[in-house]
Design a protein that fits this description.
The chain has 14 helices and 11 strands. It has 375 residues and is α/β, with parallel strands linked by helices. The protein binds pyridoxal-5'-phosphate. Its cofactor is pyridoxal 5'-phosphate.
């Protein structure tokens, strides 16, 4: 049978307790949400929803074509200008997703003959970028600038070091300044994915590279998603104008992909303007994360100290993690559940997101439910 092997794999997954299922979310879900990546609580903000609706009314339901044909509206250009200005970079290019932005950045900055040095715990989209790139990839230990130095060695030709700024599983931050130093010693570029830093870290949420003093540097390129703090959808690459022009000409996920939907561009732009007006949202997300961590630790749970807005709690096994998350859900709390194969170290976790709009009472309730349902 042509697809018999799929049933064999499904059976293996069932036996290992690793089956994934989709759970459609009703619009009026009563659950307290600590599972989404809506760090600033903007996805449902009326201005953001109106940003989407208004853009759809003006520009239509879709962008109608690839960015180089009909898919670039004035709204896309406005969004790119404002994102670049906010994050402190010369230029920006938006993509239909953060995933596509990462594939573009890694493949374009890692051409044939180049060396790509990649952190062992990078996000899947960066890993896939390395797999697609024509350059050779060397994976180094997690958050290890000396490992990066060693890997760069005496490589001749283009080299780029690739890292998340905030790692999506444990929420720990990369040592950006030290990575930049290692890159500069060896003449390599630095490419960082600020998906979990934008809107949370740096002055008013300008991101981790901004906080590390790397914004606008001519050897630093940043990717980010519009789908987390900005409560929308889409991705962006930020960097020197020459790099952005090169992406326009060479990045396959830019050239051969329909441009970001106008509604997503409109929502992201509205969220960005809101964040500019209300910069305290970023600090509040960090505060909520610190409070969650402190309360979970006080309750005897093994939580990782958060560097941004992701709080990770260790679970004893994949099965217990799944049951724990399900018990939380039954008790009215939505939490993320990370387990193999999504976690390269094999450690299963509950993953909580510290939304800036969580109240003290909601934080207390979340910690109580997690404590009461622990395996
Ligand atoms: C670190 C990181 N990079 C990239 C992405 C992909 O972004 P998008 O969801 O916009 O495709 C994600 C998750 O969504 C992520 O966590």
């Amino acid at each position: 049978m042509a697809f018999g092997w799929i049933e064999e794999q499904a059976e293996q997954r069932r036996r290992a307790g690793l089956v994934r299922t989709l759970r459609p979310r009703p619009a009026d879900s009563p659950l307290l949400d600590l599972a989404s990546n809506d760090y600033l609580g903007l996805a449902h903000h009326p201005e953001v929803a109106e940003g989407a609706a208004g853009a759809a009314r003006i520009w239509g339901g879709g962008s109608t074509g690839s960015r180089l044909v009909t898919g670039t509206t004035e709204l896309h250009t406005e969004l790119e200008r404002e994102l670049a200005g906010f994050c402190g970079f010369e230029a920006a290019l938006v993509f239909s997703s953060g995933y596509a932005a990462n594939l573009a950045a890694v493949t374009v900055l890692g051409p044939h003959g180049s060396l790509i040095v990649s952190d062992a715990l990078n996000h899947a989209s960066l890993i896939d970028g390395c797999r697609l790139a024509r350059g050779a990839t060397q994976v180094v230990g997690h958050a290890d600038p000396d490992g990066v130095r060693k890997a760069l060695g005496t490589h001749e030709g283009p080299a780029v070091v690739v890292s998340d700024t905030v790692f999506s599983v444990d929420g720990d931050a990369a040592p950006l300044a030290a990575l930049a130093e290692a890159c500069r010693e060896r003449g390599a570029g630095l490419l960082v994915d600020d998906a979990h830093g934008l809107g949370v870290l740096g002055d008013g949420g300008r991101g981790a590279p901004y906080a590390a003093g790397l914004a606008g540097a001519d050897d630093v390129v940043v990717t980010a998603t519009l789908s987390k703090s900005l409560g929308s959808q889409g991705g962006v690459v930020l960097g020197p104008a020459g790099v952005i022009d090169h992406l326009v000409n060479a990045a396959r996920t830019f050239i051969f992909d329909t441009g970001l939907a106008p509604a997503a561009a409109g929502a992201a732009l509205a969220a960005l303007r809101l964040l500019r007006r209300e910069p305290a949202r970023a600090a509040r997300a960090r505060e909520v994360a610190a409070e969650l961590h402190a309360r979970l630790t006080a309750a005897g749970l093994e939580a990782v100290r958060p560097d941004a807005a992701v709080v990770s709690v260790r679970a004893p096994s994949p099965e217990q993690a799944v049951r724990w998350a399900a018990d939380c859900r039954t008790a009215g709390l939505a939490v993320g559940c990370f387990r193999p194969p999504s976690v390269p170290d094999g450690i299963s976790r509950l993953r909580l997101t510290a939304r800036a709009d969580l109240s003290g009472a909601e934080i207390e309730r979340a910690v109580r439910v997690i404590g009461e349902t622990r395996p």
